[in-house]
Structures are given as C-alpha cells and as structure tokens.
Write a structure and sequence with these properties.
This protein is α+β, with helices and mostly antiparallel strands and about 100 residues long. It contains three helices and five strands. The longest helix is centred in the middle third of the chain and has 15 residues. The two termini are about 15 Å apart.
Length: about 100
C-alpha cells in the first residue's frame, strides 16, 4: 500500500503468480491493505487495475481516471501506454 495523502492510499503492484491464483491469496493481501489503511485512519483506497472484477468483489467501485489526484497522473504520464493504450481501470473503496 502506498500512502498518497493524509486521507488516500493506493494498492499498487499487487500480483499473485498464476500457479497460486484462485486460492484466496489476492483477497487476503487486499484485506491486509484495507486493515492497515483503517489503522492509519486512511478511509479512501484506490487502485489502477487490469482486474476490475477481482476488486469489485472486494467492494471497490469503478471511477473515472479524471477523478483521481494529479499526483497519480504523474505516474500515468510516464507510462509508455499513456494515453492511447492504457489498459487499467481506476477503482476506489471508501471505508
């Protein structure tokens, strides 16, 4: 988990190796991030993901990329996929 602002964190670079998927590991990792965020009084968590169904099952909602902080956009601007080939979906959960 990456803390962006005093009230916003990001789940970033989360991946479970193919052989270990569908065993609940990813869910436990996200739940651990959510638990840590609550402990730190961070009640908004977002992710940029190519697995929106996975995060939707955990309570994340899809949002427009434009609703995210400008600080997040700095990473996007450096990405070789930006802007025409971006395959990520912005999602957020408010606790």
């Amino acid at each position: 988990m990456n803390i962006i602002w005093e009230n916003l964190a990001e789940i970033r670079s989360l991946c479970v190796e193919e052989a270990y998927r569908k065993k609940g590991i990813g869910k436990k990792l996200v739940e651990a991030c959510i638990s840590e965020a609550i402990t730190l009084h961070l009640f908004r968590i977002f992710t940029l993901t190519n697995r929106p169904d996975f995060f939707a099952q955990l309570g994340f909602k899809e949002v427009a990329m434009s609703t995210l902080s400008e600080k997040i956009w700095l990473d996007c601007f450096r990405c070789p996929k930006y802007p025409d080939y971006c395959d990520e979906v912005a999602m957020i959960i408010e606790l």
